[in-house]
Design brief:
Layout lengths: L5 E2 H4 L3 E3 L5 E11 L8 E9 L4 E5 L3 E5 L2 E4 L16 E2 H5 L3 E4 L5 E11 L5 E9 L11 E5 L3 E2 L3 H4 L2 H8 L4 H10 L2 H10 L2 H8 L4 H10 L2 H10 L2 H9 L3 H10 L2 H11 L6 H4 L6 E2 L5 H8 L11 E5 L10 E6 H5 L24 H11 L3 E5 L5 E6 H8 L18 H6 L1
């Protein structure tokens, strides 16, 4: 494979030859997968016009050589199905060129006129350089063009290069934490477009991963009825944390707008200080009666909506099992359930000796508890032996990290998934 850097504008119209030297068609464009951060985008492949006027996609893994006169393909099959651009894909010639960009160091703005691609050490190709044309100086005969590294300019990431509709489609493939990180980097107008388009459940998942400042700002943008709907869809402990940051009168109005069944566990959490087990816990762990079978217990922890930490153990209480009414008997670890016969009852495998956390236990005590017992979840029980909820290790980490840690610029932001490279290679 050629190791030289190639500018995409010069690739347009290049002849494409198969491994046997037969001409297949010509290059029409280059397909890349933009990133959510400033990292160089991966080149997925080429759009090739066949002699039959059909337009196909050729993965870069099938490209053996790129020289000034032609592109040569390596041996192997190429899918002749017509090219269909996917939401996470961007055409360099068709969509990136002529975009307005800003040089990060100087703040100067210009127009992207070309982009250079080259192979990396992993045999992938990436855009590494961009050519930017600046406005012609008053006495100059022609406009000035300079070449910069990809990361030296802004305006070419996913948020800047794709419309809101396509951006939302990309977000559908990502984890809520990654969507939250990307959303926080968007301009205010684009943020609001995304928020308006997301359904309440998805928006609630994203809200749980946003920084406190972003949460407050976006919640203020929502009308109160929708804000209450989003709070209902959030985990009660996350909703309580958010409401705890608001003025009392505003938090009270939102609680009144929430359905009583949804607001009641949030109200219970708000009675405790934020840095106690009662303030950290989720009031909705997996609770079972002692006559529950192992098969039923495993079905509960297999629920994909249950976070992994909460799925690590189930809590056994006397009926009624809903918190905080049932008398706590003990817990059963998920590993114990996996080692037991499906017809056995959880009553026969209860761990009644595991220490319990009181609702007023401080953050330091809770941290020592997890370190001492090597757990990722622990029961919170009141003096009358009622199970109030469970604290998970991720709740503790959220409060141990420095304030505003989600706002830090060094947060990890992954590349947009490029599923085409896997499917079509």
């Amino acid at each position: 494979m050629a190791s030289a850097r190639v500018f995409v504008a010069r690739m347009a119209g290049l002849a494409v030859f198969g491994p046997d030297g037969e001409r297949i068609g010509k290059v029409r464009d280059v397909v890349v997968s933009l990133r959510l951060d400033a990292g160089p985008p991966r080149v997925l492949g080429l759009v090739v016009d066949l002699s039959s006027r059909r337009r196909i996609f050729v993965p870069m893994l099938r490209v053996a050589d790129v020289v000034p006169a032609a592109v040569t393909l390596a041996s192997g099959s190429v899918n002749l199905r017509g090219f269909d651009q996917r939401p996470n894909e961007t055409l360099v010639l068709g969509e990136l060129l002529d975009r307005s960009v800003t040089v990060r160091e100087s703040g100067a703005t210009g127009t992207l006129v070309d982009a250079a691609v080259e192979p990396t050490r992993t045999r992938d190709w990436a855009i590494t350089r961009v050519a930017v044309r600046f406005r012609r100086a008053r006495l100059a005969r022609r406009a000035r063009v300079e070449v910069f590294g990809w990361g030296a300019v802004s305006g070419l990431d996913v948020a800047g290069a794709q419309g809101a509709e396509r951006l939302l489609t990309v977000f559908d493939t990502m984890r809520p934490a990654d969507v939250a990180a990307a959303l926080s980097e968007l301009p205010n107008e684009r943020q609001r477009q995304v928020v308006d388009a997301l359904d309440d459940e998805r928006l609630a998942d994203v809200f749980e991963e946003l920084s406190e400042s972003d949460q407050r700002e976006l919640l203020a943008y929502l009308d109160e009825d929708r804000a209450a709907d989003v709070l209902e869809a959030m985990a009660p402990d996350d909703a309580a944390d958010l409401l705890g940051e608001l003025p009392d009168d505003e938090a009270g109005r939102l609680l009144e707008l929430m359905e009583p069944d949804e607001s009641e566990p949030v109200r219970r959490l708000l009675r405790y200080d934020w840095d106690t087990a009662g303030g950290l816990m989720t009031p909705e762990p997996i609770t079972l009666g002692p006559d529950t079978t192992v098969a039923e217990a495993l079905a509960r922890i297999r629920n994909p909506e249950v976070p992994p930490a909460l799925a690590s153990m189930v809590f056994v209480v006397r009926p009624p099992t809903a918190t905080p009414t049932g008398r706590y008997l003990g817990c059963v670890h998920a590993q114990q359930l996996l080692r037991s016969a499906p017809f056995e009852l959880v009553a026969g495998m209860i761990d009644a000796e595991l220490a319990r956390l009181g609702p007023d236990a401080g953050l330091g005590e809770v941290t020592r508890y997890f370190a001492a017992y090597n757990l990722v979840a622990g029961p919170v029980v009141d003096p009358e032996d009622h199970l109030l909820g469970a604290v998970t290790v991720d709740d503790v980490l959220d409060h141990l990290l420095p304030a505003g840690w989600r706002d830090r610029g060094d947060a990890v932001t992954p590349a947009v998934p490029d599923a085409r490279a896997v499917r079509r290679a």
